[in-house]
Amino acid sequence: MSRANLINLGIQIVPKSKTLDSYALVDKAIEVIRNSGIKHVVTPFETVMEGTQEELMAIAQQAQQAVMDAGADEVLVYYRIQVRKNEDVTIGEKTDKFKSI
């Protein structure tokens, strides 16, 4: 049995609340992703994760739930996924060339 390919999943969680700070709610989602131990990059608009699709979707659902548990009235979730047939997709292949030496 072959292993599942690595993919990239970008997730943007937009919480809605009449009383709570949106950034504080988003921080709850990022905390779940950080605590998962998977490779990820936080950007101003989304967080990109690297792993199997099954594990990343589970983490994404946990992140969404964390925002709801923190008091959001509603959550909009946007996903972007890059998948290759029989080959991994990594964050590094897209960003390593921009790291300073």
Automatic annotation (TrEMBL):
Protein family (similarity comment): Belongs to the UPF0045 family.
> What are the record's GO terms for cellular component?
cytosol
Q: Which residues form the Thiamine-binding protein domain?
A: 11-98
What name appears for this protein in its UniProt entry?
A: Uncharacterized protein YqgV (UPF0045/DUF77 family)
A Pfam family hit: Thiamine_BP
